[in-house]
Protein 1
Amino acid sequence: MACATGLVALGGPTRRRRGRGRPRDGCAGERRVGAAGPSQAKYLNQTLAPQGALLTNYFGIGHVSQGNYVAMMSGQPLSNQTQGDCQKYNEFVQTGTVDSGAAVGDGCIYPASVQTLPDQLKAKGLVWKAYMEDMGNTPTREEATCGRPLLGAQVAVGQTDGTQTATATDQYAARHNPFVSFHSLVDTGDCAKYRSSRPTWSPARPR
């Protein structure tokens, strides 16, 4: 099983004590038995799983990946473009707001007014990290820190997302990384500060 998004919240910005915080694991399209991991995945099953919370009757809102990840991080409903995995990395054009507070419109990069789970963690003084496999393997394909798709040396806003197609050495896909979909995260520098292509520490793993 491969899960694109792993979100870990710690007890505070400077206190990284073992066991503080709970890991959140996002596995799009997985049944619960699959999301639990294979029996040989001892760290996942024996260490991380007991620290988390099992949410039953929790379903995706769309068929493809990106809309589900965006909803999981922000509560935003599907847009026409997130339903199609955002083939172009387009700005979200907001046309209104529903009673729940969700933004109405279409696009892929939501305005800073759309808040996320990491925004809530930060407001509580917690630190978060997200781990994206292969992110940054190809410096001209995606950013090494934030993971936004690139066109040459520039962020590919309004352009075709080149990470839609995997390569032999880089299978990172921006559509599996919901954090690049929110200005509240990419504009503040949080994504460069707290994101890594592979774990460098764990709040629960003995050192």
Protein 2
Amino acid sequence: MQYSKGSWNIQNLVLVPAHFLVPSAVEPRKPLSATARRHGWVGSNILLDRLPQDARIFLVKNSVEMPKTEVREAFNRFSFLKDKNLGAKGWINDVLACVRELKQPEFSLQDVYAFTERLQQHIGVPPSISSPRRFRESHWHADISCNNKPL
């Protein structure tokens, strides 16, 4: 969310559907200290630059509320991800982010192979770009909070 400091008017408000939140886009924060009320709790930061542009759905853009039909259409466009396991979601998100970076309506497999090194840097990515990522869903969990309160 972005707002104007003087008037507190919302300038931009972005929704990120849960089915786009994958391990490569979430960074754990430092655990709370031993003296904290909830010591040991680990929050997370969402790395928006690691999400494909399609994951960012504007509810308000440049201080203008987006039409509800546009918002719903954008949300539903990738709703098929809800039914995928975490590894498949991650792989689809990572590859989609790379493809969108090409900024071309048509591209070759060779164009995508240019991102091999970046894709291999993500946890659990196999050496071959053609293999799906494998994550054991039980080994990954992110607490997302706002003002230290779970959402």
